[in-house]
């Protein structure tokens, strides 16, 4: 009787092991198939020639990706196969900042984003760029995100403002103009993300009054190349100085283009203070640690 009992237990345990193996194997296959689907829709969303195909792939990709990110343990998945997604991590890996775009038409590029914390919390970012007012002065939550592809993210530690992150992003506003943004991402005590903090200071045009900004916003001609990035050697945010000209894309409309000189914001006393005319001579490219968003063949939008 005892021998029969032991045999029954061995058969039961063996059955459990087989079921567990089959389940894990199927789960792994399902996960691989799901990521293959994501990679396919991501590629079509970005590169398909037909607008309707890009839009259809965008909808399928977003549904699948948000579902995947909400799965337990998904923070450990680097999603390396998603080549057209910008993936930026905090230095301590406490969260990651994911952004992507879908160009539906020349005048309709849509932006999507997610902040995923290492504890599993997922915050979907809803683009409100075209409806937003007071772009440089307001604080926004995740429901009023100023959408754009993030090409650089850097952590800043401040005795006055605590820990925050500078988000360097690009928004293709319409066929005639692009916008580059240096936004400020910070988290509440509960770990909820917000955008915009008064850390940028410049002097008013009258030369007397100081203006404090929550973010930097640069609108410029879509046919121009504008650099906005952080220079670690100078501890400075540097960007092309813009001047007005008549648009070559939209007739009878004035736009902004670089003039070959550079200005920026230098970190002083826990603030970023505006510096006029960093470089007075015309350069081929701004002095920066790593070129981003340039026109060389094979260069990715994310500067890597």
List the helices and strands and how they pair.
Layout lengths: L1 H46 L3 H19 L16 E4 L5 E11 L2 E10 L4 E5 L22 E10 L3 E10 L5 E11 L5 E3 L4 E4 L6 E4 L2 E6 L6 E4 L4 E11 L7 E15 L2 E9 L25
Parallel strand pairs: 9-15
Antiparallel strand pairs: 1-2, 2-3, 3-4, 5-6, 6-7, 7-8, 7-11, 9-10, 12-13, 13-14, 14-15
Helix pairs in contact: 1-2
Molecular structure report:
The chain is an alpha+beta fold and 304 residues long. It folds into two domains: 1-82; 85-296 and 300-304, no CATH class. The chain is 21% helix and 38% strand. It is built from two helices and 15 strands. It has helices spanning 2-47, 51-69, and strands at 86-89, 95-105, 108-117, 122-126, 149-158, 162-171, 177-187, 193-195, 200-203, 210-213, 216-221, 228-231, 236-246, 254-268, 271-279. It has a six-stranded mixed β-sheet with strand order 10-9-15-14-13-12, with no helix packed on it. A hairpin with a 5-residue loop joins strand 7 (177-187) and strand 8. Helix 1 runs antiparallel to helix 2 (51-69). Mean pLDDT is 85; it is low at 12-28 and 289-304.
